[in-house]
């Protein structure tokens, strides 16, 4: 890390070097619900394949290219355990290759169709798509050896990337009724991370940025989320801007803000600090949260809004590809945004060269914005702060088609910056430990900055079912604390199904209405499977048929082979 901000350093021959004023990291959160063998288009496995083709392969290609050209780009990348399990699965890998080949073939057929119609521009776009998907397949197969996680692991081992973990299935931790479930989600997530990345994680993405402080109910103290993070060795998490600075929610805050899961307005919420006053708290600094070994970094709002804002954000530029209009034959997207409130049927054709010019201009604008942010903070405080630009990974490439190339351009520019040092979040934390301890309020980056998106009149029926399953799992561990053989297999599968039914994706999709029936069906399926496993386990005498059922369900829901059902033991009350 650089010398103190006010120092001057000399290079070879006495040449003066510019002193960095602050640090920057993209913090990207990669997550998809468990979809392996759980439906195809429009809901299910295609979610994985679209994101892999348009986001994950291009992003890892961009980072690999920067590293091979000795450009010191760094990035913080969250990969949820349930997504990692799917990306590493042999069946998913095979079907992704089929998907990429199919898309290339669709594009090739479009070339012929458009030429027969005399539409030369559409034919050229179809050829462009054919090249894109063919190149994606070759990169995945030949350059990456069919392992996206392997590429991420190498980039992390080389210091270009920090990979975050998360709760195992992106469970919404503050709404879980048993602390054993919070521990089970995190313990399983850390175990999966070790298996995929060969090391312990340092930092975590809390699902939906949802945080719960310690509180007392009926004379019993429930620990804050930071206590559970500390128990599994996690030193850092991330929070929405308003929970750190105070004030109303920002970012994906109003109906005028775009996002990969749709537009949801938020309501006002005000967090309370019992230590550092809200007016003095900033997202440019990390803070310890309630204890001196777990820190938080908040999302920088100005950089966030440059991407999230529907009115002023880059993805809404008229020359970028339109996401929503798709060709009626092939499903490919041949149009550009065109203008404000232009109906889908009136969109103009996409021009990749126009988009390239815009993304370069936007990358330059964003780079200057980051430099201004760290410079102004340094001028005000004399401190070496950090700008954490936090986004859903799938926004880039999938929703904003040019977004991955924009990320690469920004990283290349900031790698040459005289003002900004690129870093990963944990590297910054190690070099610049927090100076203050804060008490964050309960909240999330969802609607209203609270839990409403996941707990509302449309989803409230789910939570008693979840809470009953949590209590039942806890009771099973108490009855069979050291099970072995078939009994252990059944208890392990019950724990997997509990994790899967706890996914925050199911209530989210019900609330947004994007795939409500699908989400309800998936939730009920995992509940039914959990109850079958729990009922068998409760007999204490699983037979061969029951054991085979557990094995069949594992093959269907093939996640977390290293799971330890004992993680769901009751947490002692304090």
What does this structure look like?
The structure is a single chain. With 574 residues, the protein is of the alpha/beta class. The chain folds into 2 domains: 18-88 and 147-449, Alpha-Beta Barrel (7-stranded beta/alpha barrel); 462-568, immunoglobulin/albumin-binding domain-like (Up-down Bundle), CATH 1.20.1430. It is 45% helix and 10% strand. It contains 17 helices and 14 strands. It has helices at residues 45-68, 81-87, 90-116, 120-143, 148-157, 179-197, 225-231, 241-245, 301-308, 352-381, 403-415, 425-431, 462-479, 485-501, 505-512, 516-539, 544-556; strands at residues 9-10, 16-17, 22-30, 75-79, 161-166, 204-205, 215-217, 220-222, 236-239, 287-289, 295-298, 385-392, 420-422, 437-438. The strands form 4 sheets. Strands 3, 4, 5, 6, 12 and 13 form a 6-stranded parallel beta sheet that branches. Strands 9-11-10-14 form a 4-stranded mixed beta sheet. Strands 1-2 form a two-stranded antiparallel sheet. Helix 1 links the parallel strand 3 (22-30) and strand 4 (75-79). Helix 1 (45-68) packs parallel to helix 5 and helix 13 (462-479) packs parallel to helix 16 (516-539). The longest helix has 30 residues, at 352-381.
Keywords:
single chain; 574 residues; alpha/beta; 7-stranded beta/alpha barrel; immunoglobulin/albumin-binding domain-like; six-stranded parallel sheet; four-stranded mixed sheet; 14 strands; 45% helix; disordered N terminus
């Amino acid at each position: 890390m650089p010398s103190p901000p006010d120092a001057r350093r000399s290079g070879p021959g006495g040449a003066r070097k510019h002193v960095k004023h602050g640090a920057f990291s993209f913090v990207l959160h990669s997550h998809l619900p468990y979809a392996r063998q759980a439906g195809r288009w429009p809901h299910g496995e295609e979610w994985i394949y679209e994101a892999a083709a348009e986001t994950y392969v291009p992003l890892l290609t961009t980072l690999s290219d920067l590293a091979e050209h000795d450009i010191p780009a760094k990035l913080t990348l969250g990969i949820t355990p349930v997504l990692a399990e799917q990306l590493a699965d042999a069946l998913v890998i095979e079907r992704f290759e089929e998907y990429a080949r199919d898309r290339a073939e669709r594009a090739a057929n479009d070339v012929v169709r458009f030429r027969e119609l005399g539409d030369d521009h559409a034919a050229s776009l179809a050829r462009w798509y054919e090249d894109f998907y063919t190149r994606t397949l070759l990169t995945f197969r030949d350059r990456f050896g069919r392992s996206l996680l392997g590429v991420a692991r190498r980039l992390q081992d080389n210091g270009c990337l920090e990979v975050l973990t998360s709760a195992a299935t992106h469970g919404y931790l503050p709404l879980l009724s048993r602390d054993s479930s919070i521990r089970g989600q995190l313990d399983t997530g850390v175990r999966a991370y070790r298996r995929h990345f060969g090391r312990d994680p340092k930092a975590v993405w809390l699902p939906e940025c949802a945080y719960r402080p310690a509180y007392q109910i009926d004379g019993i103290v429930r620990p804050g989320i930071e206590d559970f993070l500390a128990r599994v060795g996690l030193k850092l998490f991330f929070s929405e801007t308003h929970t750190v600075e105070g004030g109303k929610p920002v970012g994906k805050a109003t109906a005028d803000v775009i996002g990969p899961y749709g537009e949801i307005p938020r309501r006002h919420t005000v967090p309370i600090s019992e230590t550092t006053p809200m007016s003095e708290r900033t997202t440019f600094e990390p803070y310890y949260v309630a204890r001196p070994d777990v820190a938080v970094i908040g999302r920088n709002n100005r950089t966030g809004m440059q991407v999230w804002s529907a009115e002023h954000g880059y993805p809404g530029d008229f020359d970028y590809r339109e996401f929503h209009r798709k060709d009626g034959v092939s499903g490919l997207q041949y149009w550009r945004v065109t203008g404000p409130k232009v109906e889908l049927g009136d969109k103009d054709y996409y021009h990749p060269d126009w988009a390239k010019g815009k993304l370069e201009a936007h990358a330059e604008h964003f780079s200057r914005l980051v430099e201004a942010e760290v410079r102004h903070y340094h001028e005000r405080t004399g401190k070496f702060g950090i700008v954490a630009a936090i986004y859903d990974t799938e926004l880039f490439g999938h929703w904003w088609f040019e977004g991955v190339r924009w990320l690469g351009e920004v990283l290349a520019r900031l790698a040459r910056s005289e003002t900004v040092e690129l870093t990963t979040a944990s590297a910054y934390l190690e070099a610049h430990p927090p100076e203050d301890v804060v008490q964050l309020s309960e909240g999330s980056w969802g609607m209203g900055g609270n839990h409403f998106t996941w707990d509302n009149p449309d989803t409230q029926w789910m939570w008693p079912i979840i809470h009953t399953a949590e209590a039942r799992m806890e009771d099973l561990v108490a009855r069979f604390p050291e099970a072995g053989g078939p009994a252990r297999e059944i208890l392990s599968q019950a724990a997997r199904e509990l994790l899967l039914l706890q996914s925050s994706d199911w209530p989210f999709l019900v609330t947004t209405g994007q795939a409500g029936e699908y989400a309800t069906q998936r939730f009920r399926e995992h509940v039914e499977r959990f109850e079958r496993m729990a009922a068998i386990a409760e007999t204490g005498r699983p037979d061969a048929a029951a054991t085979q059922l557990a094995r069949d369900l594992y093959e269907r829901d093939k996640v977390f082979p290293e799971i330890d059902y004992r993680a769901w033991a009751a947490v002692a009350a304090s």
